[in-house]
Here is the input.
Amino acid sequence: MRTLTKRGRLALAAIGLTVVMALLSNCSRKSSGTPGANSQSTAGAGHGGWALHVMNQPGNVFHVEYSDKTVVIDRQTVSHSLRGFSEDHAIFLFEDSPALRQKLTPGKIALFEGLDLRKVDALAVDGDKLVVGTEPAPLREALKNAEMRWSVPVDFKEISDQRAAELRRLQDLPSKFALWNSVSHWWSAREQKVYASSSGELEGEKEIEDTDFATWKIKYHHIFNNSDHSLDIDLQLHREAPGMNAEIAAKGHMTKFTQTSSILMADGEFKQATFKNVGLHGNVNFHWELSTSESKTPMNEVRLKLPGKISVPLDFTGLPMSLQVSEALLFHPAFPTKGDVAQGGFHVDYSGDEGFKLSGTDMQTDGEAESESAIDKTVAFSPLAAYGVVVAMAVPRVELRVGTEEIFEALEIPQSVYLKAGKLLQNSPLAGTWLPKAGNPLSTEAAAYFQVVISTTASHSGMQSLVPCQQFTMIAKGQVGVDSKVLGVDMNSTAKDIFTKNIVQRQPDVKICGGGQNDSPK
Here is the structure.
């Protein structure tokens, strides 16, 4: 294993932008990029490069016609003027120009070619930078007509090989990328360490501060397997703060699978959509250890979107989209005393075809999926008062997103720049109105997604109780769903469970502790 050199890291950061620009340069558009223009491709229009090659697959169709509310920022302008954007994709920084100001009118939908589709909320200026505040663009507002149908294999070894080849190519050509200086600037301000190897592995580590000012040290190690073209996920989280220690680990395995989706719109009205991961099988081992060393410990809930996501662009013409594999954590402790201890081990297997069909506002599950779950080794102890804790993870989360996620991660602006840009948009906008939006790391802005959610709890009645009782629970769910805001559709329900397993384990398993009943997996 070796640490990437600065030159290598910069090349990696440039991959996302250069690849999506290359994708566009090899495809045809019916117009020069005016609002309401058509964008159409047929099977066979594919090409080399780092992407899921949707247009190479027979029978796939892509045709969109944009509405009058959509303005196009062409790929040349994006590549020459873009300076960075926030992790939540809400704020973009461009080199200021009258042409951009004229196009990016608040209320308009902006198609940043090869990058993203966003709704403009407000504009501000910071020196020679144009600050653009945005929100997700509802497809119903952005598109007038759309017919998109595709099926594409998701082969993790092939994804790894493509990315490695792109990195090797870019390391030899740094001077040809317009964003090189900008990428270097943002990389120099970031603390995340990224590693790589030639054997199909991706490693990294990052520190995140939570609402209790505790530092979470997070390490990830993903292996793209040569033998069966599957993916192994390994996440290690360590919480460092006075009063409470936490060690959380999640290890998972995902097979290669086939991703099939479709979107149909006519005259600005959403008609139907489908999403399915065919033949996706996997497992998750989830383990955590918690202990307190002081009587006053944090009680705030922590929600983290974890680093180490894998995001691959789809080689569509005109509408930037990507497939992403990621993870998220929810952590809610309630430890009242010193010396509290909790340790839990959990296992989930899942398999099948996970998907949904959406017609109008009605969503139904599509495919058959099943799961087996188990609670492994557990320990709970409290010398005095009762306690409880909730630890939950979404692992894995497979999302079909609007936008090319990898370039977002590469050009993520520092938190200080994000806060300054937000204040400018809020207090001195050139146009529009900007209200800070509190994000939820556990939510998704995906057009469609599948996720395995493992929610675990531990509780202890305290050693001073008549009968010291401990209880562990695990609810494992497979969910499919959509973000109704992305689609622009009022949904009856935005998520469906395709499997659920509920397990309760008590010690001692007696009536006074809530036992003496059937708590077998459901």
